[in-house]
TrEMBL record:
This is Deoxyribose-phosphate aldolase. Pfam families: DeoC. The lineage of its organism: Archaea, Methanobacteriati, Methanobacteriota, Stenosarchaea group, Halobacteria. GO terms for molecular function: deoxyribose-phosphate aldolase activity. Belongs to the DeoC/FbaB aldolase family. DeoC type 1 subfamily. Its EC number is 4.1.2.4. The gene is deoC. Pathway: Carbohydrate degradation; 2-deoxy-D-ribose 1-phosphate degradation; D-glyceraldehyde 3-phosphate and acetaldehyde from 2-deoxy-alpha-D-ribose 1-phosphate: step 2/2. InterPro entries: Aldolase_TIM (IPR013785), DeoC (IPR011343), DeoC/FbaB/LacD_aldolase (IPR002915), DeoC_typeI (IPR028581).
Length: 215
């Protein structure tokens, strides 16, 4: 994978609770200058969409970070984000519903989000909170909802992306490995394990770690 292809696979991310517009603007600048996508808080999507230095693809989050919003709130949040200019939606599943065995409710909720917006939807399954059987059920719900991708983590639970989780999830849908990926080597390992997208606040370091960056 060349440097340009690597950069295009990265969602350069800023989603902390204290994130300001200035923080978001800095990530947009870095993403645009390095050829990456950006993943930003929903409250800044409208500003980002009209920002002159924005990257080509802007993703945002829905039901973040715990996934416990009412289904209607998630759907409306997704629609609002799309209307504000988001190119992709990363939605958090309701982990509690999944653990309680309400897989149909999880899939229905995701289906409502997918059907409500004409842009790609990634499903964050929060792998650190699930055992392997639950991860498979979460992926099955994402498939049933016709989601475009599954994503490992919000970054707010203990633990992030792991190679075994990426391998497991890639049996179902394309995978976004997110949470704890901080270097070029770690990103390459995730891609080799089956990920097609990397979510990281260290996007610049990952891209600049590519061997071509030293040319």
């Amino acid at each position: 994978m060349n440097r340009e292809e690597l950069a295009a696979s990265i969602d350069h991310t800023v989603l902390g609770p204290e994130t300001t517009w200035a923080d978001t603007r800095a990530v947009l600048d870095e993403a645009a200058s390095h050829g990456m996508n950006a993943c930003i808080p929903p409250c800044y999507v409208e500003e980002a969409a009209s920002y002159e230095s924005a990257p080509e693809t802007i993703a945002t989050v829905v039901g973040f970070p715990h996934g416990q919003h009412a289904p209607e709130a998630k759907r409306d949040e997704a629609v609002g984000a799309w209307e504000a200019g988001a190119d992709e939606i990363d939605v958090v599943i309701n982990v509690g519903r999944l653990k309680a065995g309400a897989d149909g409710a999880v899939a229905d909720e995701l289906s409502d989000v997918v059907a409500a917006v004409p842009v790609p939807v990634k499903v964050i399954i929060e792998t650190a909170l699930l055992d392997d059987a639950e991860k498979r059920r979460a992926c099955e719900a994402a498939v049933a909802a016709d989601a475009d991708m599954v994503k490992t983590s919000t970054g707010f639970a203990d633990g992030g992306a792991t190679l075994p989780d990426v391998e497991l999830m890639s049996e179902y849908l394309p995978v976004k490995a997110s949470g704890g990926v901080g270097s070029y080597e770690e990103a390459v390992d995730m891609l080799d394990a089956g990920a097609v997208r990397i979510g990281a606040s260290s996007g610049v370091a990952i891209v600049e770690g590519h061997p071509e960056s030293g040319d």
